[in-house]
Design brief:
six-stranded antiparallel beta sheet, seven-stranded mixed beta sheet
């Protein structure tokens, strides 16, 4: 069974899934190192580390693993895992402090680097003060940068090397340390360097400016990444701060955190609704745009549900709190978006795999560069070898590869949330762009899900079989239309089907007195049966009549066909003698004709037609799907005629009719076997298996909790145009990810050979390590900026 549909495994009793912040990660290699360390921890079942959110989602067996063990595992790799995830406000404050500290380090590094560059670069040094030309002063200034701003790289590198691991910090630390140590040697032992045939000229500017530029890149990258999580911040900012509750007959304003389930809350015009609940007095219109993306206010009255954080527009009302704190819809949305942003798309796993080999390969290339230049390079060969090696180490950038996918996923899921599209994980967002067939459930998805009784038809006795025109059973000889409706409503009162609700409502509107149903039984895909007023009642579709061997007269069949061609669902009512009763007398003629040959002696006495209105957005939604080149399919338990009538209204060509609830999953799998990538859109409990079986399950936000749980994507705005918007969002996000990855890989493939000096024999061009660090910083910034461009995308 699919885990989304309640499946359990052997670990489920002690299995815990938790998200932990990780500090110190900067590149895809960091992700690979920390992820591997977590997965190797005894008791850990799975771990996913996300660079963009700087968080790890760990699934572990609580009987064999504790969070403190996870802290120890991460500490060994040179990073820090925090046990508690702080509030958004605290996190924001910490990020601002970190940015300020980083900015200070960048400023100091670049100013010192510029001063050393001025005093040490040939040509410029002629205009520099004598003090700046002093190598000893340059060494002191460079040491400040190397062991204060540069300490970041050592803190991550030393523990990693102890565990025979390498990451981007390792590359930067090795590269800058090599330049720094060489420069110190030049300063302290100039004669020794001169004896090697090399002019004793230090390169402190290389070490300091490279550190400054790399930290500058991280600073801009961190600022840009903060923009990718704006969706979460906006959602959190929607929450009301206080609530006006009625307690002990008095109104009082209390903190939102003090509201409990059952509190009665008063909301006045213009105020935010504090928590989720149900209106018990008053009426109003409510702006739900911040949750659903729909701009039109929704009218609310007694008995209607309201959602916390939405805005009351006009009237005053009181309502009873039903969900508070982390159980409210707003917090569930926030949790879902956070989980989606922290998950990994399949395409990202490929990038991570490549990145895991990237740093060791770069180190080997750097060694090869040094050897080749030292052996075959022109004089001073050692200097050429050193600078080119440093350039290779600095320019290699696994950062861009690590950020390519998660930044785009963060922005994409945030845009989805703003449009009322909740995406559970990155894999669903990636798969959606491949979908070429979308199956729509009819009831509650294409239609309003609120059917109404349109026709009640009394079937007269069969005159060709009974010339007297009287029913054989005197107990229902004078049935009227109201009797048909009353009997149907009495038996359906115990049913949970949406059609049953419409019939019961129609009877109640007519103020008919309903009787209690005995021996009630729901027959999936057929209807219901039971006893009402000591009569055996069968109420359902043709399949139920066939099953009970109840004949349908041709004239009645014509009525059924006419109603079904109008897109109505027709239910048949048969009444017979209650089991065990023997009061009904049968004529020999009737028995010989087989009219009442079934053992329960039931007779068809009436038809009830129910019509479910097609949603306003259904035709436009299906049209938008078809314009994307995707096949639209409708699935329903209705017969072919009724189903086709509805399908024609919305523009669907392929119809799967008379599908029993337990057959929907099989129909989905049947279409998948045709080689199709299938999305299923539904809202009911009986849709859940099909939603779980589809490549992408899309649940309507008006649906049941089980359907939403089984789905990959939830449309909380109830608008079917959101289905095509979901596909467009997936397409645009994947296009951005591919552009990011192309740039990230292309950058490394092109510039690493340049840094190694392959152009030198042809053009005399060598890449200065300073320019290498600038290029590396720009590569990461460009990837994040490209992801942020998604914010400007229009889904309509």
């Amino acid at each position: 069974m699919d885990s989304r549909f309640g499946g359990n495994d052997k670990h489920s009793m002690s299995e815990v899934k938790k998200t932990f912040p990780i500090k110190g990660m900067h590149c895809a290699s960091c992700v690979r190192v920390t992820e591997r360390a977590l997965k190797k921890t005894p008791g850990v079942l799975d771990a996913v580390v996300n660079l963009a959110t700087a968080k790890a989602t760990v699934k572990y067996d609580a009987d064999n693993c504790t969070p403190s063990q996870l802290v120890d595992s991460i500490a060994k790799t040179g990073y820090t895992l925090e046990l508690e995830e702080k509030s958004e406000e605290v996190q924001s404050e910490e990020k601002q402090k970190e940015l300020k500290a980083l900015r200070n380090k960048v400023t100091v590094s670049l100013i010192i680097g510029a001063l050393i560059f001025w005093g040490g670069f040939p040509g410029l040094m002629n205009y520099a003060p004598e003090l700046l030309k002093n190598f000893w002063l340059q060494m002191i200034l460079a040491s400040i940068v190397q062991f204060w701003p540069g300490l970041t790289f050592y803190k991550a590198t030393i523990p990693a090397l102890k565990n025979r691991l390498a990451n981007m910090d390792t590359l930067v630390a090795i590269g800058t340390t090599a330049a720094y140590i060489y420069s110190v040697a030049v300063t302290v032992f100039p004669q020794l360097i001169q004896g090697l045939g090399v002019e004793p000229m230090p390169y402190f500017d290389v070490a300091t400016i490279v550190i400054g530029l790399i930290l500058l890149g991280r600073y801009f990258e961190a600022k840009a990444k903060m923009g990718t999580s704006e969706a979460i911040k906006k959602l959190i900012g929607l929450q009301a701060k206080t609530a006006r509750v009625l307690r002990d007959g008095k109104e009082m304003d209390i903190s939102i955190n003090e509201v409990v389930i059952g509190d009665v809350i008063r909301v006045r015009p213009g105020e935010k609704i504090p928590v989720d609940g149900i209106i018990n007095d008053g009426e109003s219109s409510v702006d739900e745009s911040m949750i659903t993306g729909e701009s039109m206010p929704v009218d609310k009255a007694k008995g209607d549900s309201v959602v916390g954080s939405t805005i009351n527009k006009s009237g005053t009302f009181t309502y009873k709190a039903t969900k508070v704190g982390s159980e409210t819809m707003l917090f569930q949305i926030i949790k879902l978006v956070q989980e989606a942003q922290g998950s990994k798309a399949p395409i990202q796993r490929v990038a991570d795999l490549i990145s895991s080999y990237f740093v060791p390969i770069v180190i080997m290339l750097a060694i090869a560069t040094f050897v080749v230049w030292y052996v075959f390079g022109p004089n001073p060969a050692f200097l050429f070898a050193l600078l080119n090696t440093v350039a290779v180490l600095i320019i290699a950038c696994p950062c861009a590869m690590g950020l390519a996918t998660p930044t785009a996923i963060m922005v994409g899921t945030g845009i989805g949330a703003a449009h009322g599209i909740l995406i559970k994980d990155a894999e669903s967002l990636e798969t959606a762009h491949k979908v070429n067939t979308i199956i729509f459930d009819k009831t509650g998805t294409l239609t309003q899900g609120k059917p109404e009784v349109t026709d009640v038809i009394l079937i007269p006795p069969w005159r060709e079989k009974n010339p007297s025109g009287k029913r054989e059973d005197p107990s229902f000889a004078s049935l009227s239309q109201d009797d048909i409706l009353r009997l149907a409503a009495s038996i359906e009162k115990g049913s949970e089907h949406s059609l049953a609700e419409s019939i019961v409502k129609a009877a109640e509107d007519k103020r008919l007195n309903l009787s209690k149903a005995e021996k009630f039984k729901a027959i999936a895909g057929h209807g219901v049966e039971g006893e009402v007023d000591n009569k055996q009642i069968y109420f359902g579709n043709r399949r139920l009549m066939d099953r009970e061997k109840i004949e349908i007269q041709k004239q009645v069949g014509d009525d059924i066909e006419r109603l079904e061609n109008e897109g109505k669902t027709v239910m048949l009512l048969a009444v017979g003698q209650a089991l065990g009763s023997s009061s009904l007398s049968l004529g020999v003629e009737d028995l010989s004709s087989g009219r009442m040959a079934n053992e329960k002696q039931a007779e068809l006495v009436g038809l009830i037609a129910v019509s479910d209105t097609v949603k306003n957005s259904a035709k436009a939604g299906v049209g938008a799907i078809r314009r994307l080149g995707i096949e639209a399919v409708m699935i329903t338990g209705d017969n072919q005629r009724t189903a086709k009538a509805i399908a024609d209204q919305v523009g669907i060509k392929r119809v799967l009719a008379q599908v029993l609830p337990d057959q929907k999953e099989a129909e989905v799998r049947k279409i998948q076997k045709e080689g199709k990538i299938v999305a299923m859109v539904g809202d009911g409990i009986n849709d859940a298996p099909a939603l779980a079986a589809a490549d992408v399950g899309i649940a309507m936000g008006t649906g049941t909790d089980i359907a939403i749980e089984a789905a990959d994507i939830t449309l909380i705005n109830k608008d079917l145009l959101s289905v095509s918007q979901t596909i467009k969002l997936s397409q645009k996000t994947m296009r951005t990810i591919k552009m990011n990855l192309f740039w990230a890989f292309g950058y490394n493939v092109i510039l690493i050979p340049v840094a190694m000096g392959v152009l030198y024999p042809f053009s005399g061009i060598l890449l200065n390590p300073i320019f290498a660090s600038m290029a590396m910083a720009l590569s990461s910034i460009s990837v994040v900026t490209n992801s942020l461009r998604l914010k400007a995308v229009r889904l309509t």
